[in-house]
Structure formats: C-alpha cells, structure tokens
Amino acid sequence: MIKSVYLSPSTQEGNIGIGDYGTEEKRMNQVCDVIQKHLLRHGITIFRNRPEMSLKQVVADSNNKNPVVHFAVHSNALNGKARGCEIYCHRFGGEGERLARLVYGELLPLTPAKGRGVKEGRNHFGPGKPLYELAKTAAPAALAEISFHDQPDDAKWIIENIESIGVAIAKGILKYFAIEWVEENNELHDAVDMLAI
User: Fold this and answer.
1) What spatial distance separates the first Cα and last Cα of the chain, rounded to whole Å?
2) C-alpha span between 53 and 86 (Å, rounded)
3) CB 39 within 8 A of CB 61
4) Distance CA 143, CA 108 (A)
C-alpha cells in the first residue's frame, strides 16, 4: 500500500498574528514545507492544498486524492493570553485519534507552555457543530493548533522554531506509518561513505 498524506496548512490569510507573525496562512505553509520535505525523504507520497482554496475545496480535493491520512496545520487565537498546543480528531476511538496522539507526543515537548491535549472536534462549535475539515474528510484526519499566534511568547516561539515544529509533526506522522526517523546527516554520511568505497 502506498503511504500517503494530505497536508492542509491553514488557508486563513485574514488571521493576523501579533508583532512580526504575519498571517496564519503564511506561517503554517512554512511549517508544512518542512513537514513535506521530511516526509518525502522517508518515502511518503504528499498531497497538499493551495492557499487560494476554500475549506470546502480543500476537503473535496483531499477526498478526491484519497490519502491514507489527512493532516491540517493551524495556529490558534483566543484572547491574547491563552497558550499551548492542542490537536483535534473528529471523534475518539479511531485512526484520527491515533494520528493526533502520535503527533501530539512529538510536538508537546517542544512547546514552551503547558499542552492543551488531544480533543474531539465533533462538537467544537456547539452540539452537532464540528470542525468541518475533520468531519468531512474521508481519510482519518487530525488538526494541529500549534500554539497561539495572538499571544506574544507563543507567536515568537512559532516564528523561531518553524523547522523543529515541522520535524516534530513529521516524526509523529512517520510513527503512524511505523517508519523510523532517519536524520538528514545520516543520509549524507551514508552517501559519502558509498562514494568512498
């Protein structure tokens, strides 16, 4: 079976973070660039949304591509004080939860604030009002809210740790597929060693 992931960075260009953060869309695409790079070098097939897509178009595109899993990447906002990462699946008990927990386990140790946990998205906006992307994708799905872009310390942390955040998420996704992480340096040394033989 081909191991494939649909990466869905936020398309919310209207969500502006504090200070130098810029847009959620821009920052989450930077994170997904890192995730994509590392998943590709581990042999994962990648599908990805485009910034101009609506959420409905993203879901339709994912369902058309038929990935093994769908993973959305966002930064959060609330009141300028809330902090920490959280990851959603549609409901507990399935592959979406397993994916969410594996990524959360990799991401949480990096974050400077207390984690907010793995949560269900099926009643996120009230009873029967789910997170659309998790409810409507055919593939098992998870959505990461990396940290809060309206809180100064969290926003600064995201800006300064794009690479390590992307690596952590990639490691969690690879664990889902039972693929062992290989450092880039090891690949380089192996290539040099082969040339020396």
Assistant:
1) 34
2) 24
3) no
4) 14
Burial class of residue 47 in the structure, from the number of CB atoms within 10 Å of its CB (0-12 exposed, 13-18 middle, 19+ buried): middle
pLDDT tens digit at each of 197 positions of the chain: 689 999 999 998 888 999 999 999 999 999 999 999 999 999 999 999 999 999 999 999 999 999 999 999 999 999 999 999 999 999 999 999 999 999 999 999 999 999 999 999 998 888 988 899 999 999 999 999 999 999 999 999 999 999 999 999 999 999 999 999 999 875 554 544 445 44
Contact criterion met (CB below 8 Å) for 48 and 36: yes
Could you identify the residue written with the tokens 């290989």? 182
- Tell me which DSSP letter residue 122 carries: T
Of 144, 142, 143, 161, nearest to 21 (Cα)?
Answer: 161
Q: In angstroms, what CA-CA distances link 116 with 54, 96, 119, 136, 147?
A: 27, 17, 9, 24, 10
Tell me how far apart the alpha carbons of residues 133 and 80 are, in angstroms, rounded to a whole number.
25
Distance CA 71, CA 121 (A): 14
